[in-house]
TrEMBL record:
GO terms for molecular function: histone H4R3 demethylase activity; metal ion binding; methyltransferase activity; P-TEFb complex binding. It is found in: Nucleus. The lineage of its organism: Eukaryota, Metazoa, Ecdysozoa, Nematoda, Enoplea. SUPFAM superfamilies: Clavaminate synthase-like. It comes from the Eukaryota. The keyword Ligase does not apply. GO terms for cellular component: cytoplasm; nucleus. The gene is jmjd6. Keywords: Chromatin regulator, Dioxygenase, Iron, Metal-binding, Methyltransferase, Nucleus, Oxidoreductase, Transcription, Transcription regulation, Transferase. Residues 1-116 form the JmjC domain. Belongs to the JMJD6 family. This is Bifunctional arginine demethylase and lysyl-hydroxylase JMJD6. InterPro entries: JmjC_dom (IPR003347), JMJD6_ArgDemeth/LysHydrox (IPR050910).
Length: 116
């Protein structure tokens, strides 16, 4: 992940289409200009690249774009109990927060017809 992307943002912005009307509000304009929070990230990697399962920094919402390949998303209603989507004790390994571990252990369960 690249947190200093803002140094090249104008160059990149020129190559990307304009921002949708749904994303025009920029609440970071209220943050301190001397020390703005990190809020622009760039991830790049080889085939099967993934990240740990996480909540966006600062609890923000992400606007993601895939340049090449595809990305798998699993979205749940906000009221879904964590116990249904988290690994159970003993599942996984020392890298329990890695997305691939979640896909191996939890994803097959949520695909079953008897999953709540």
């Amino acid at each position: 992940m690249e947190k200093k992307l803002h140094k090249r943002i104008n160059e990149i912005r020129a190559k990307v289409r304009s921002v949708s009307k749904f994303f025009k509000d920029d609440l970071f304009c209220y943050a301190s200009e001397r020390r703005p929070p990190s809020h622009r990230w760039f991830g790049m990697g080889p085939a099967r690249f993934g990240t740990a399962i996480y909540i966006d920094p600062l609890g923000t919402h992400a606007w993601n774009a895939v340049i090449s390949g595809q990305r798998c998303w699993c979205l749940f209603p906000p009221d879904t109990p964590e116990s249904l989507v988290k690994l159970k004790p003993g599942e996984g390994c020392e890298h329990r927060s890695e997305a691939i571990i979640w896909i191996i252990f939890v994803y097959p369960k949520i695909r079953r017809s008897d999953w709540p």
